[in-house]
Design goal:
single chain, 112 residues, mainly alpha, two-stranded antiparallel sheet, elongated
C-alpha cells in the first residue's frame, strides 16, 4: 500500500512540475562557472527535476544495496550461531509446547 501512495505522490508532483514548467516558457540567463547560457525556463525546470530524481534514485539504490549486504551478513551470523549452539527453531517450538502442556496440567491438578 505504501508503494501505491508513493507512486500517486510522485505522479502528482510530476503533474504539478509539468504545469509549472509549461507556464514558464520565457528564456532565462543561467550563469555557469565558465560562462552564461540563455535557455527556456521550461527546460531548466524539467532538467533540474530529472537531475533531482536521478540523485534520489541513486541514493535509494545505494541504500537498498547496503540493506541487502547487512541482511546477508546477519543471516550468515545466524547460521553460525545455530551451528555452534545446535539450536533449531523446531526444537524451540517443541520445548515451548511441552512447557505449555506442563502448565496446563499443573492448573488442572493431578489426573487419576
Amino acid at each position: 500500500m505504501k508503494i501505491q501512495w508513493s507512486l500517486i505522490a510522485a505522479l502528482l508532483f510530476a503533474l504539478i512540475t509539468a504545469v509549472f514548467a509549461v507556464i514558464n516558457v520565457n528564456p532565462v540567463q543561467v550563469n555557469l562557472l565558465f560562462g552564461t547560457v540563455d535557455i527556456p525556463l521550461i527546460l531548466l525546470i524539467i532538467g533540474c527535476s530529472l537531475i533531482g530524481g536521478l540523485i534520489v534514485g541513486a541514493f535509494g539504490i545505494y541504500r537498498q544495496y547496503q540493506m541487502q549486504k547487512e541482511i546477508r551478513s546477519l543471516a550468515e551470523q545466524l547460521i553460525h550461531i545455530r551451528e555452534v549452539t545446535g539450536y533449531t527453531p523446531e526444537m524451540h517450538a517443541v520445548d515451548n509446547q511441552l512447557e505449555e502442556e506442563q502448565k496446563e496440567e499443573s492448573k488442572e491438578g493431578p489426573k487419576l
